[in-house]
Design goal:
2 copies of one chain form a homodimer.
Chain A lengths: L3 H4 L10 H21 L6 H8 L3 H7 L3 H26 L5 H18 L1 H10 L3 H23 L9 H21 L4 H20 L4
Helix pairs in contact in A: 2-3, 2-5, 2-7, 3-4, 5-6, 5-8, 6-9, 6-10, 8-9, 9-10
Chain A binds a DNA duplex (30 and 30 nucleotides) through α2 and α4.
DNA sequence: CACTTAGATGAAGAAACCTTCAGCTTTGGA
DNA sequence: TCCAAAGCTGAAGGTTTCTTCATCTAAGTG
């Protein structure tokens, strides 16, 4: 039976009454809270349920196992980030590639640094096999959007937008990770942001005309 | 007893006969192999011992617990990387900052991509609390070396070498991570390497004179 | 208001894995 | 050669945490 593995991560029951929707939401929120406060290693389903104000049994009514719970939590966060990126990629079309890059950087930094704690804790669970897959998936979507965005740039580009997108995104994520490693001061953050813009623009200058 | 926590991760016994050195080495190597083949989640001490050709008891004679084992494995890899970086940072002094950056990039890419599988698997365990600390520690050392390196550049710099080092390293690690995510083709790798040099140099041009 | 279905409970079962330790084997020096 | 110390063994104990399920409560509907 080839479908077993896939089934094992699907929600066990779909909420039909509104109260259960609230329950699911509380559980996901609690998962993130527990993750941030005690860390991935000490996160247990019982603890999450307790934090959510429900019993373990309830938790297992909506999530078939612990992995699925963590996955759902990660996916929720990723959806948030990717939505913001895809959004800006749509609205910044047909502009100078420098403006586009600036918009992308600002969006990315804002959405990731908005809740530093959450993002940092979620990196921890992303290393699980399936977390890797989700992260890669999101990475691909971001890459596609960005490529599409750069394709509409008013400038004529000297190399493929795919490659440019890869480089710019790598640079942004590299910097973001660094910023998430330890709570940056406001001063450091703005200095790095400026340099990131600087670097990206300097690079893009070599890619136009 | 404030020392307890620290003691808990120190090796339990120091090898004095040469055979035990070989054993420790085999165990560390086996840990990496198991990590790569079955992943962090399914790695058990028994499995590692078996792969190393020893019994669990032997493993526990040199590592007080599973965490210490993973830490030691991670540290070993990190030491390898940081040694290469510090090495190149020493030998590339008093040269053009562009050459310095090129040397740094080539070293970093080579040492990381040399064994893609190992590096990628190790990222997975680095998310454990202490792995984070080790990674940060190595990051700091790399940052110090790089700062020192750039300080000796023949060009006059327009902003602090610390900041330049931060940016260049972020960029390099961002790209490296991307390359480790999925086995890159030779073509893609060389294209990205070229762009990374391109981007870094473009950035550095804005930092000189 | 009765009745069906959705939702919630949490003690207890089950499985997985870490870690120990009493005893055995090998090594190397006197 | 002999022996003390180093090294090795692996079954068994102990924890921890996941997951289930029989039972109870709340919600909606005719």
């Amino acid at each position: 039976m080839p479908a077993t593995a896939a089934i094992a991560f699907q929600p066990r029951k779909t909420p039909v009454q509104s109260r259960s929707e609230a329950t699911v939401d509380a559980i996901l929120q609690a998962t993130l809270q527990v993750l941030v406060s005690v860390g991935k290693e000490k996160l247990t389903t019982t603890l999450v349920a307790h934090r959510a104000g429900v019993s373990v049994g309830t938790l297992y009514q909506y999530f078939p196992n612990k992995s699925a719970l963590l996955q759902a939590t990660l996916r929720r966060h990723m959806d948030h980030v990717i939505a913001a990126v895809e959004d800006i990629c749509k609205s910044a079309r047909n502009r100078s590639i420098f403006d586009q890059a600036t918009a992308l950087i600002d969006t990315y930094l804002e959405v990731k640094l908005n809740d530093v704690n959450n993002s940092a804790s979620l990196y921890a669970i992303a290393s699980d096999v399936d977390g890797m897959r989700i992260a890669r998936n999101v990475g691909n979507r971001a890459h596609r959007s960005t490529t599409a965005l750069f394709s509409t740039a008013t400038e004529r580009l000297t190399c493929e937008p795919e490659l440019i997108a890869t480089m710019v995104l790598c640079c942004i994520t590299g910097v973001t990770r660094r910023l998430l490693e330890d709570k940056p001061t406001q001063k450091f953050l703005s200095a790095v942001r400026e340099q990131l813009l600087n670097m990206t623009h300097a690079y893009l200058r070599t890619c136009v005309r």
